[in-house]
Amino acid sequence: MDAKLSWDEAKRQINLRKHGLDFALAGAVLDSRYRLDIPVVRGAEPRTLSMSYAMGFLAVLTVVHMARDGSFRIISFRRASREEREAYLVWIENECDEP
After folding, report:
1. Is the pLDDT at 1 greater than 60, yes or no?
2. Which residues on adjacent β-strands are paired with residue 65?
3. Structural domains in the chain, sorted by start
4. 38 bridge partner residues
5. Could you tell me which residues come within 8 angstroms of residue 12 by beta carbon, excluding any fewer than 6 positions away?
6. So what's the pLDDT on residue 98?
7. What are 35-61's pLDDT values in tens digits?
């Protein structure tokens, strides 16, 4: 994994219980060459919602993160919602630049 990750440990534990996904594995999405990034704002805080198909999970996964101190600060890591999966599949079929 190339991505440098950071997180709040309490949020990581909550995410593990709620979604069954460990922030430490978010590089499966963040290092993907087929990653779709969507800028979002929550409150006044800019964030990025990143989606990618993760082979190790056999699912489209979503990571919500922000840039902080040269790393990806992970906020949430979960399976993509149906709407997110559909948007990702449309993007991969029509707009993704094949590396």
Report:
1. no
2. 48, 74
3. 5-94 (3.10.450.530)
4. 49
5. 22, 23, 24, 74
6. 64
7. 999 999 988 889 999 999 988 888 999
**Within 13 A of 21's CA, how many CA atoms are on the CB side?**
23
β-pairing verdict for 5-7 and 36-42: unpaired
Average pLDDT of 24-41? 94
Element at 19 (helix H, strand E): helix 9-19
**Residues contacting residue 3 through CB under 8 Å, at least 6 positions apart:** 26, 27, 30, 31, 71, 72
Give the pLDDT confidence score for residue 57 in this predicted structure: 84
Neighbours of 34 (CB within 10 A): 16
Q: Are residues 5 and 27 in contact, defined by beta-carbon separation less than 8 angstroms?
A: yes
- What are the strands of the beta sheet with 5-7, ordered from one edge? 5-7, 71-79, 59-68, 45-54, 36-42
> How far from 12 is each of 5, 72, 87, 94, CA to CA, in Å?
12, 14, 26, 34
